[in-house]
Amino acid sequence: MNLFFLGICGTFMGSLAILAREAGHSVRGCDAQVYPPMSTLLESQGIELLEGYDPAFLDPAPDVVIVGNAMSRGNPAVEHVLDQGLYYQSGPQWLAEYVLRDRRVLAAAGTHGKTTTASMLAWVLEHAGLNPGFLIGGVPRNFDISARLGEPPCFVIEADEYDTAFFDKRSKFVHYRPHTLILNNLEFDHADIFADLAAIQTQFHHLVRIVPGSGRILLPAGEAALEAVLERGCWTPVERMRVGESAEDWSAELLAPDGSEFRVRFAGEDHGVVRWNQTGLHSVANGLAAVAAARHAGVAAEAAVAGLSAFAGVKRRMEVIGEVDGVTLYDDFAHHPTAIRTTLQGLRARLGPDARILALIEPRSNTMRMGVHRDELADSCTDASEVIWYRSPQVTWNLDEIAASSPVPARVLPETAKIVNYVKAEARPGCHVVVMSNGGFEGIHKRLLDALREREAHA
User: Fold this and answer.
1) Could you tell me the pTM of the whole model?
2) Cα angle at 451 between 317 and 406, to 5 degrees?
3) Tens digits of per-residue pLDDT, 131-154?
């Protein structure tokens, strides 16, 4: 088939395009914003990328237009598809019909940790020799690709609760029909499409409804928002997990306070120790879920622990992208106060109380831009030494209030050039600079490295 992807550089759409190309389809696509790592990943797969939404891109007409959920009425390419009667599908629908139909699907869902947990699970299955397929909204460093077909039966997917398309307002994940479902956590997010937490819980219950009785649902013990979802009805065996405490099902005993070493237990039995380069209790929770899901897919828990110990992380999830003039620079895909808090907690636990941590934060997600979580943002940065908030033109609420109430020194800067200059002037050797954004942040990562190299050259 000749496929054309509208909004191809989104994390889901780009990964789906890679799968379609691997399956032998002709794939092209367009997007308004094209930036790494997805753009370079697509180009490396031989997929043509076009800038903008010119209707001429769809001439001659493809067999199917795959419409991303960022597309809306009024978009010139969308209007052309409708006016010309071109055949179109959502990405999740195409995935369900052409990839997932005959696979055993293992899905990772939740407000936080979906990408990392799915990456861990895919790697654990790979380490066990199962050669799983996967589609992940990020790039696992063990694979250096975000999606592949793999071999039956296993397919791992990051199960996103965001809506499917402008013509299908159900959450993406209802298309996937998982056999094993990880529910990491549940908080209010995506305020642009959900009115409140209850609306998100309804979508999560739609997901719970389609997990078969022979399947498994895995979730952290004591997660009230998720327990409320299950109370609406659950027809699948459930296993619960705890970090730092014993549990009836799964538990992780911390052997290092930063989470870099922990013992895995199931039903009171010891199944080995994970030693890895990840940090933070959230990482331990994600890893424990991956081990539990792999066991349900037939991998012995001991083998899953061994695989997890060799997990190399995910690009843009606390990824060290350079160390220049004694300054270490990290890239992190923070999109919510909880993600900011747990990431900085993990780094602080690893580095110790005296390390200097400078957090550069772009409130970029739709929910963050709307200011929904503004009351939680200041306290989310407690473990930083200093915070710089980037006030982009899209942020219309008063970030100065966040800086004023911050428990650590904080400032607001309206230009990324000023942020680069500040870091160049103030980041001394031994400083750890964490760039937190779920977007490109105007290419600040490379600009920071270049500025530090220039400083080092003139020292």
Assistant:
1) 0.89
2) 55
3) 999 999 888 999 988 899 999 999
Contact 107, 217 (CB under 8 A): no
Per-residue CA distances from 347 to 119, 342, 383 (Å): 20, 9, 8
Q: What is the b/e burial string over 357-392, where b = at least 16 CB atoms within 10 angstroms of the residue's CB?
A: bbbbbbbbbebbbbbbbbeebbebbebbbbbbbbbb
Tokens 């600009």 sit on residue: 447
What number of residues does the chain have?
Answer: 459
Residue 452 CA to residue 44 CA, distance in Å, equals 29
Q: How far is CA 449 from the centre of its chain?
A: 24
Q: What is the pLDDT of residue 394?
A: 87
Place of tokens 């990408």: 115
Confidence of residue 439 (pLDDT cuts 50, 70, 90): confident
**Given the structure tokens 């690709």, which residue do they identify?**
145
Three-state SS letters, the chain:
CEEEEECCCCHHHHHHHHHHHHCCCEEEEEECCCCCCHHHHHHHCCCEEEECCCHHHHCCCCCEEEECCCCCCCCHHHHHHHHHCCCEEEHHHHHHHHHHCCCEEEEEECCCCHHHHHHHHHHHHHHCCCCCEEECCCCECCCCCCEECCCCCEEEEECCCCEEECCEEEEHHHHCCCCEEEECCCCCCCCCCCCCHHHHHHHHHHHHHCCCCCCEEEEECCCHHHHHHHHCCCCCCEEEEEECCCCCCEEEEECCCCCCEEEEEECCEEEEEEECCCCCHHHHHHHHHHHHHHHHCCCCHHHHHHHHHCCCCECCCCEEEEEECCEEEEEECCCCHHHHHHHHHHHHHHHCCCCEEEEEECCCCHHHHCCCCHHHHCHHHCCCCEEEEECCCCCCCCCHHHHHCCCCCEEEECCHHHHHHHHHHHCCCCEEEEEECCCCHHHHHHHHHHHHHHHHHCC
What number of other Cβ atoms are within 10 A of residue 213's Cβ?
Answer: 7
HSE, side-chain direction, 13 A CA sphere, residue 68 = 23
